[in-house]
Write a structure and sequence with these properties.
Elements (H helix, E strand, L loop, with lengths): L14 H34 L1
């Protein structure tokens, strides 16, 4: 199992910091979503075997 590190909060509220954080956080969420989808597929397959 891979443990993804959650991005740190922005150090200030500048538009650049917020946009950079949004990109990093979005990537983090996509990785988690992919991982959970894999677990669900594995679980559903195990239920039918």
């Amino acid at each position: 199992m891979v443990v993804y590190e959650r991005p740190e909060r922005p150090t200030d509220g500048s538009p650049e910091q917020l946009l950079n954080h949004a990109v990093r956080y979005g990537t983090y969420c996509q990785k988690l979503e992919t991982q959970v989808s894999g677990w669900l597929a594995w679980y559903k397959k195990a239920q039918h075997d």
